[in-house]
Input
Amino acid sequence: MFSCRYIRHLKHSYLLLLSGAIVSFFGSMMNWLDEITLPTKLAFVEDILLSIGLILSATGLLLLFRHQVVQHSLLKKIAATDPLTGALNRRAFKAPKEHKHSERTVFALVDVDHFKRINDTFGHDAGDFVLVELAKLISSHIREEDQFFRWGGEEFLLEFRQAELAQASKRMESLRQLVESSHFNLNGQAIKITVSAGLAAVSPGHGGLEKALKAADEALYRAKGNGRNRIEMAA
Ligand SMILES: Nc1nc2c(ncn2[C@@H]2O[C@H](COP(=O)(O)OP(=O)(O)OP(=O)(O)O)[C@@H](O)[C@H]2O)c(=O)[nH]1
Output
């Protein structure tokens, strides 16, 4: 629907540009004829035609420019979004200017437990459905300033901003309990899942971000090893 509207608007701007050029052309022709023949009493028509041509062309150019801006921001949004869940993707996390990670940030790597079993039991489409529903559930229960990314496969990254490790772990624990107590209804069938999470705070200094991500990954590994459906914090 958006693309139809976009193409229609694009057509309008090219039409305006074309008609502006045609009207200006006739205005210039009349001007030129005036100069090689005797001046007519229609000199004001030339001026009107030239002015209309200019207005049409300028409007066409403005519309064209506006459409380029809209298209650019749409492409940027598509590039930063995971197509399945609609969550931000890894590219968005890495985008240097648009995504600023402050030093009071805690990362939580969240992974669905035994997700392979969901696929094997209910089918791959059901697995996709669960990922979509889980992304909706988590993103609707985080603060506006926090960020939620699909990190890959059945793994997500939560970024708790302006938070200490203790606060973030409380929030993550609530989310874990929320997932545990929810069920996703697919064609009358209730699918239940649990998640494990590993948390780490970004510490000041060079490489803080990478270190925190690695520590969160190690903590997640421990959460899996310690029985799943639990959260662990970086040592
Ligand atoms: N439906 C679906 N499955 C996916 C997607 N991405 C990854 N998977 C599946 O997720 C499963 C991950 O399996 P494993 O890495 O063994 O992990 P797991 O079964 O969740 O087990 P643990 O993480 O150890 O609790 C694999 O079967 C992948 O095929 C996806 O986008 N959709």
Summary: The longest strand covers residues 105-112. The radius of gyration is 29 Å.
